[in-house]
Amino acid sequence: MKSDHCARGWKFFSGKCYYFSTDEETWTASQDACVAAGGHLVIVSSSGEQDFLKRSKPGSGREFYWIGLTDAVVEREWRWLDGTKLSQTSRLVHDRHHCPVHFEVT
């Protein structure tokens, strides 16, 4: 969606709509659910977007959410869903089982 109006339960930021699911699913199941809803797991492209994501996640007691970053194709070669390599200036705070759970965009 390209306006400041998002479907109920979604949040708007910088021309995009974001949905924060509280379902506990695998990365693949989460990505599939996003695709079914017409989107994809988030590809974080700026520190402003990362700040928005940190501020916006619901207080459901969940600390971590899936993002559109994976090393499933080549071990330790992190790529966003669009194929872009993770920037050298980004830092993975914790990664295991092909799943980054927190990072910083600088």
Automatic annotation (TrEMBL):
<dbReference type="InterPro" id="IPR001304">
    <property type="entry name" value="C-type_lectin-like"/>
</dbReference>
<dbReference type="InterPro" id="IPR016186">
    <property type="entry name" value="C-type_lectin-like/link_sf"/>
</dbReference>
<dbReference type="InterPro" id="IPR051379">
    <property type="entry name" value="C-type_Lectin_Receptor_IMM"/>
</dbReference>
<dbReference type="Pfam" id="PF00059">
    <property type="entry name" value="Lectin_C"/>
</dbReference>
<keyword id="KW-1015">Disulfide bond</keyword>
<keyword id="KW-0430">Lectin</keyword>
<dbReference type="InterPro" id="IPR016187">
    <property type="entry name" value="CTDL_fold"/>
</dbReference>
<feature type="domain" description="C-type lectin">
    <location>
        <begin position="13"/>
        <end position="99"/>
    </location>
</feature>
<protein>
    <recommendedName>
        <fullName>C-type lectin domain-containing protein</fullName>
    </recommendedName>
</protein>
<dbReference type="GO" id="GO:0030246">
    <property type="term" value="F:carbohydrate binding"/>
</dbReference>
